[in-house]
Design a protein that fits this description.
The chain contains 14 helices and two strands. The protein has a two-stranded antiparallel sheet. α4 runs parallel beside α8, α4 packs antiparallel against α11 and α5 runs antiparallel to α8. The radius of gyration is 26 Å and the shape is globular. It starts with a helix and ends with a helix. The relative contact order is 0.12.
Length: 303
């Protein structure tokens, strides 16, 4: 038998062996995931792109309008107002949430092991509370007349605040609510990262005279950089897409109207589905650009 024939036989045997090693259940699960991904993302995304070139109000047939919707977005003052509110909310919420979550994780890490579990569970309670329940709870707390927060302020002789009835306070009220609701999940991730840091490294720093502050700045934060990166990327995607918080805790005027709320109003209140789909495409492009920038910055710092 020639060398070529031997190689063909060996190749056929290897393919047969590889085919026997393929799990039928694994193939079924993979095909199911591909079908699910296509159903819930690819098809709606393609539909949104197609709809962004149409003018459709759910009543008459869609009318092709070319790039008119995209040109309208660029010159739409309401769109840029909503983008500004979204940007302010995202930057403020992510900054405050990261600082608070890291501070909570670092503080709990200094406690005895028995207390660590208790406080982690305590901070994680808001995460498991249904979102609507949390929103309605904070809406009750923010009531201008007989709300709990204003009741406490008046008891200490402080002036009553309008909260959600104020154009300058409404957005910050939502930021406080979102930080409270998600603090526990981020704190657990930071806590797990701190626990992965070598105790010998921290002990060596202590022997060199480094206190908790110097350990945090020079050791803990640099080693937790991948966790900070993950939290920022996930938080950017989450904050831009938030809807229920702004819809149920809405402030006066356009003070709390984000891009997500604006898209909803275009699609389901004014029935301008084509333009609403165009705004959603811009939201996707914003998220994609923010994610790519964060990945590039992270890779640059790692290299």
């Amino acid at each position: 038998m020639s060398a070529i024939s031997i190689r063909k036989v060996q190749s056929a045997r290897s393919r047969s062996h590889a085919a026997r090693n393929v799990s039928t259940m694994g193939v079924v699960v993979a095909l199911f995931l591909i079908a699910y991904y296509a159903l819930v993302f690819i098809v709606p995304f393609y539909r949104a792109i197609w709809l962004s070139f149409q003018n459709w109000d759910f009543i008459v047939d869609p009318i092709y309008v070319g790039m008119r919707n995209y040109d309208h977005v660029i010159h739409d003052d309401y769109f840029w107002q909503a983008a500004k509110v979204t940007l302010v909310f995202s930057v403020a919420e992510i900054s405050i949430a990261l600082i608070c979550a890291f501070g909570v994780a670092l503080g709990i890490h200094q406690l005895p092991h028995v207390l660590q579990r208790f406080y982690l569970g305590l901070f994680y309670i808001p995460v498991v509370v249904p979102g609507i329940v949390s929103i309605l709870l904070w809406r009750w707390l923010y009531l201008p007349g007989d709300g709990v927060i204003n009741g406490v302020l008046s008891r200490f002789g402080l002036p009553v605040q309008p909260f959600l009835n104020s154009t300058s306070q409404a957005l910050w009220c939502i930021i406080a609510m979102v930080v409270w609701a998600n603090l526990g999940g981020a704190a657990i991730i930071f806590f797990a990262g701190i626990n992965e840091i070598s105790i010998d490294l921290l002990e060596a720093a202590k022997l060199d005279g480094a206190g908790l502050w110097r350990q945090t700045i020079n050791i803990i934060i640099p080693l937790l950089r991948p966790i900070f990166f993950y939290q920022v990327v996930v938080s950017v995607i989450g904050t831009v897409q938030m809807f229920e918080q702004f819809y149920l805790l809405s402030g006066p005027g356009f003070s709390t109207r984000t891009l997500a709320v604006y898209t909803y109003e275009l699609g389901f209140k004014t029935l301008n589905l084509g333009y609403g789909a165009t705004v959603s495409i811009f939201i996707f492009l914003f998220l994609l650009a923010a994610t790519v920038i964060q990945v590039q910055r992270f890779m640059t710092k790692q290299s």
